[in-house]
């Protein structure tokens, strides 16, 4: 039987927020072997003046990867938290990853990824992948992104869950 829980804050409605952005760009990004995924994605955003992006990891390997999974909280006002990071130092094959790129509350590029991968023994793993700790392995990391020059996503503290989330940002016209 699953134990019910309640988030600490008042329920936020509507939970689905949306905004429109002009002329998003569809990109195929290939990150070469040995490069840090977070560094390359931040460089891409800065070089092209993108404020945000969303997309997925299509394929590739990592020779170093760090990820977190959700665990029941022992204390505090949130029922679940991200646990201690798990480090993978052997080559793993990325199966999929949902990537969101936006701005943190200070206006810097923030990266978020939930992904799944297979380790060298064939075991399936997944969780919150830290892109700044992902070093691409023998196979290039291939992503498909929809990037935005205006609008996109900005982090905020969600009053209901008390987690830092991404919310849509209204497009700023130049």
Keywords summarizing the entry:
nine-stranded antiparallel β-sheet, 47% strand, 174 residues, 60s Ribosomal Protein L30, Chain: A, mainly beta, two-stranded antiparallel sheet
Structural summary, described in words:
By secondary structure, this protein is mainly beta. The protein has one domain: Hypothetical protein, similar to alpha- acetolactate decarboxylase, domain 2 (60s Ribosomal Protein L30, Chain: A, 2-Layer Sandwich), CATH 3.30.1330.80. Helices cover 7% and strands 47% of the residues. It is built from one helix and 13 strands. It has one helix spanning 37-48; strands spanning 25-31, 52-59, 61-68, 70-72, 80-82, 86-88, 92-103, 109-118, 124-129, 135-136, 141-148, 152-157, 164-169. Strands 1, 2, 3, 6, 7, 8, 9, 10 and 11 form a nine-stranded antiparallel β-sheet that branches. Strands 4-5 form a two-stranded antiparallel ribbon. Strand 4 and strand 5 (80-82) form a beta hairpin. The longest helix is centred in the N-terminal third of the chain and has 12 residues, at 37-48. The N and C termini lie far apart (54 Å). 23% of the residues are buried. The mean pLDDT is 88.
């Amino acid at each position: 039987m699953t134990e019910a829980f309640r988030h600490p804050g008042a329920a936020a409605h509507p939970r689905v927020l949306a905004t429109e952005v002009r002329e998003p760009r569809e990109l195929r990004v290939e990150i070469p072997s040995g490069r840090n995924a977070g560094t390359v994605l931040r460089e891409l955003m800065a070089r092209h003046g993108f404020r945000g992006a969303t997309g997925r990891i299509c394929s590739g390997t990592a020779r170093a990867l760090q990820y977190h999974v959700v665990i029941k909280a022992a204390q505090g006002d949130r029922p679940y938290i991200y646990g201690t990071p798990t480090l993978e130092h052997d080559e793993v094959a990325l199966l999929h990853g949902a990537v969101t790129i936006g701005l943190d509350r200070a206006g810097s590029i923030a990266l978020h990824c939930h992904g799944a991968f297979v380790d060298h023994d064939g075991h399936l793993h997944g969780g919150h992948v830290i892109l700044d700790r992902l070093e691409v392995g023998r196979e290039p990391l291939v992503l498909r992104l929809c990037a935005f020059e205006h609008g996109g996503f900005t982090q905020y503290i969600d009053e209901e869950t008390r987690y830092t989330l991404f919310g849509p940002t209204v497009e700023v016209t130049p």
